[in-house]
């Protein structure tokens, strides 16, 4: 055990002793050290007799100020012992600054002696069971020149809660408040050469109607500018979501919400009126879609949206503009043709105007003839029998029930006998012949907001030769055909 080396670390406790000079001394303090042999190997695990002596000089000569002998357990070369643990041998009569610890292990004195100073204890003025540091000045951990009351240089582990009390007050920042507010801050200093610090701040007040309101501010910069932002991302990932201080949000791919309520989204283009707007930007081709309200609403594809939006706008003019760099198409995925009829509907109490073409001076709404189909009627009576010269079947009413005049009415008449059995004729809207003459016929109809009325010939004061279908000589190279009995069908479109 000759030539032992060691490392000594002292840990002071909070038990203090008042001396007659009213100075503070620890009654106990804990020391920990490592014992190694001359080859640097830790001593074997065992219990060793250790003598601890405190001298007023570095040579360890004269009488010690304090001494204590104990059997100390050494594990992996490490030992720990609390000096002054015996009430019969308290730490006393120690010099404030010049105290030297001599340690003897199983008869071998370790050299050199280790200086221990109690001045740190007096400077810190640690007092009472609450471990209060009452002295003036700053405390530094990992630094000898702290810049504040307490500074830690290096990583810090906290098992507990950080509480930041209101450290200042001033004019309100959040729109929630009026007047002055209290502000608790965590400040992040700027790098050397920069003037752009950041902070987390909680703003609140203790008076008025806003007493129970609080606002948490995230301030990555000292101004409201694009490029200064709060970043949300994974531990090792790049910026994913950016909340810029100018109000711009970047990186959001999907938003899930049961209800999104937008009270006011204002445009930031100073040359235009300040109306609510939402823009869906394209990284390459301008605005993919723009929705606005108030004066003008534009829904566009490609550069159309931004180009049209840049045109002069009159706030009092309310317009809906649909546009595209290529084509505007309306589609429906309905499974049946009947459900596709409302793929595009235009309703107006006034005229619907299609402006003329700039090049041909005319306009049209059309479609390829081979794809043309008459849409299914909104009212269809189906086929029903009628007979001319009949008291009950020469006039029939069919109710469409729209409550307004149909946009189109069609009445079909189908032959049921003879040459034109199964042939379909369209009824006319009026007749200029009555039963005072021989040989006449036809089907006429009229309609209002609720019904369609169908008329067949019925004798009044002349002959009874009126037919539902009447073809006289002179039609189709002298072909003649007459029929009283027919099938009729009424069709109405809203």
Would you kindly provide a written description of the structure presented here, covering whatever features stand out?
The protein is mainly beta and 494 residues long. Among the domains are: 5-124, Macroglobulin (MG2) domain (Immunoglobulin-like); 262-324, no CATH class; 379-493, Immunoglobulin-like (Sandwich), CATH 2.60.40.10. 2% of the residues lie in helices and 36% in strands. It contains 2 helices and 37 strands. The protein has helices at residues 119-124, 304-309; strands at residues 5-12, 16-18, 24-26, 29-36, 46-55, 66-74, 78-83, 99-105, 108-109, 114-116, 126-127, 132-133, 139-141, 150-152, 168-171, 180-188, 198-204, 214-219, 229-232, 241-244, 249-250, 277-281, 287-292, 296-301, 319-324, 379-380, 384-387, 395-399, 408-415, 424-426, 440-441, 444-447, 451-455, 466-467, 469-471, 481-483, 485-493. Strands 5, 6, 8, 9 and 10 form a 5-stranded antiparallel β-sheet that branches. The longest helix has 6 residues, at 119-124.
